[in-house]
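@channel sequence for tomorrow's demo:
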Amino acid sequence: MDYKTKGRDPLNQIAQIAFYKDMTFIKSVKFFFTTLTIIGLAGLVLLGVQGYNQSFLSLNRLHFAIGDEVFPHLTHLADGVLLTTLMGFLYANKDKAWIGTMAWSLLMMAFIINILKYNIFETWARPPLVLGKEQIHYITTQNECCNTFPSGHSATAVCMFTFFAFQWEKQRAYYGILAGIAAILLGYSRIYIGVHFLGDVLFGSLLGFLFAFAGLQWVYPRLLLYFQKKSDNPLKYYTFFIRLIAVILMIYDIHRIYSIYRLAS
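structure tokens (generated this afternoon):
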């Protein structure tokens, strides 16, 4: 398709084409968005009714033997490094614009969250410091005490699974629901192990979705146009570079997680 229509900016044109072709970004991830919205609204109701501390305690006290075994490990996937680099490796030759957009969204989101955590809400402490470890179900291997708002892990989980849903819902609609459940479980893992309040998780999740929305709605179509103009030869080097970086980051993250448990033992 020729996007170089006379008298029009090709970047604006492809953005409009992508927008109207999918009838807004939300429709392209509607099952994921619906799943996330239902649980998110339920969380907001609980937060409004019980307040910041009590809503955390209500969810944190819902613990069970299997959860104690699974969630401390599952929560590490919410940092995004392992899952996003794995997807980058798999999709390096399929959708280069998607990989670039996901990297942009995650990096921009991390920048904003760090400003919020360490400059604006730097005095907001985590549940162990506010409520005391003896009052909560605290089962993390790391010493978490400060900079609770917003939850960076929750933001990363929702952001990356929004991108996954964008790819997966094209194949099967219910994949979007599974992506939504996965994002919710990773966010909930932060409450389960006792390191974040419900409000931290909800706001972090909202930020993650908004940055994914911004990337897929506006950055993605522009990168599609950029890669369309490139010849095949440079793109081979791009694919090789993406896969090399993905392997390095996966090895690094596996080693990092292993080190956490080794130091804790």
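heads up for whoever presents: The CA atoms of residues 71 and 189 lie 5 Å apart.
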